[in-house]
Design a protein that fits this description.
- The complex is a heterodimer of chains A (95) and B (270).
- Chain A has three helices and no strands.
- Chain A starts with 30 loop residues before the first helix and ends with a helix.
- Chain A is extended, with a radius of gyration of 19 Å.
- In chain A, helix 1 packs antiparallel against helix 2.
- Chain A has 95 residues and is mostly helical.
- By secondary structure, chain B is α+β, with helices and mostly antiparallel strands.
- Chain B contains six helices and nine strands.
- Chain B has a five-stranded mixed beta sheet, with no helix packed on it. Chain B has a four-stranded antiparallel beta sheet with strand order 2-4-8-6, with no helix packed on it.
- In chain B, helix 1 runs antiparallel to helix 2.
- The two termini of chain B are 52 Å apart.
- The chains are: A mainly alpha (95), B alpha+beta (270).
């Protein structure tokens, strides 16, 4: 931790988060999604790459219940988990 | 240098005050040069001679003798005094320069630290679009361990819900902490965080978390607190981070008094 009297020693400066703070989930509206995510983590020996779908679901739940500002999930780094947009799939289905 | 000459001419020509003012008012470099060119050297000398005559002086012979004797030591003294003055001016200028440099050093050093990232200071210029376009570096697996602390007088129960998580740079990750208020009155907490090792702190970017803002917990309430973060993909390319495999994220909760406005850290660096 950054203690005083350490003149010249390396200190850590905390940075505020990019999108601010999460509002607290007082009513546990997204608790189910959180439990799914935690279970996935425990099953996969805490490997985050395997549980990205569950974390995406959790953030979607937060956005639905106004516990997070709505944003396209691609901006949150879930571009590879996104479904293709509807007009593209229509074009694919056309002969 | 030219102005005194002009004034002397004006004075010796017995110009009326109005004309003097007129001359002064006309004083811009081009006009002055033109004015000078008009007076050829003979007229100048004539003016000079008149001016000398007008001035009160000692009889020439005596004056010449004393002038020679006096002038040598006087000249030497003058020389020394001008030299002293020059040296003093240089020293004074150096002193003022040093003071100015020490004042300028504060923002300059801050800029240097931001650019080089020494001492774990925030590297400026993390744009939001990076999250969208970054690609995960799948070969480099980093273990993130979580630590939860609270101030001694803070009565919340605060702990992480996972002890560690394995991430790769360039991939967003989610982690949870749990906080419970076991008392019978609402408590407002505010938290800060720390990242160890310090140099890795500049690559640790939080998209959203629960820090630096007052969080209110009602009596006997328990909440899940998520942290959404990612490690900058440039972490893999930094030679100083080559042997860093574990990063520890530590949160500490303090009790906040009602209506207290805490300054947000790091805004001056943004």
């Amino acid at each position: 931790m950054s203690t005083a009297m350490n003149f010249g020693a390396k200190t850590f400066t905390p940075r505020p988060p990019e999108k601010g703070a999460f509002p607290l989930d007082h009513f546990g509206e997204c608790k189910a999604f959180k439990e799914k995510f935690m279970k996935c983590l425990r099953d996969n020996s805490f490997d985050n790459s395997m549980c990205r779908l569950q974390s995406k679901h959790y953030l979607e739940c937060r956005m639905d219940h106004q516990l997070m500002t709505k944003e396209p999930l691609a901006k949150l780094g879930f571009r590879d988990l996104m479904d293709p947009p509807p007009n593209q799939s229509d074009r694919d289905s056309k002969p | 240098m030219l102005l005194p000459l002009l004034l002397r001419q004006a004075a010796s020509c017995r110009a009326a005050p109005r004309r003097l003012l007129h001359h002064q008012a006309q004083h811009d470099p081009r006009r002055l040069l033109h004015h000078q060119a008009q007076h050829d050297p003979r007229r100048l000398l004539h003016h000079q001679a008149q001016h000398d005559f007008l001035r009160r002086r000692l009889p020439p012979r005596l004056h010449a003798q004393s002038r020679n004797r006096k002038s040598k030591s006087e000249q030497q003294r003058d020389e020394w005094s001008t030299r002293n003055k020059t040296v003093l001016t240089y020293i004074a200028a150096a002193g003022v320069g040093m003071i100015g440099l020490s004042y300028a050093a504060v923002p300059l050093y801050r800029l240097y630290c931001q650019a080089s990232g020494l001492g774990g200071t925030a590297v400026a210029g993390h744009d939001v679009d990076q999250v969208e376009t970054m690609t995960p570096v799948k070969e480099r697996i980093i273990k993130i361990t979580f630590n939860a602390d609270r101030h001694a007088s803070m009565q919340w129960n605060f702990k992480p819900q996972q002890t560690e998580i394995f991430v790769v740079p360039g991939e967003t990750a989610l982690a949870f902490y749990r906080a419970k208020n076991p008392t019978d009155k609402p408590i407002i907490g505010i938290s800060t965080y720390n990242v160890v090792p310090f140099e890795a702190g500049q690559y640790f970017n939080k998209i959203q978390c629960f820090c630096f803002e007052e969080q209110r917990l009602n009596p006997h309430e328990e909440v899940d607190m998520p942290v959404f973060f990612y490690i900058d993909p440039e972490f893999d390319e930094d030679p100083r981070m080559a042997r860093v495999d574990t990063i520890t994220l530590s949160y500490t909760f303090f009790e906040a008094k009602e209506g207290q406005n805490l300054p947000l850290p790091g805004y001056s660096y943004n």
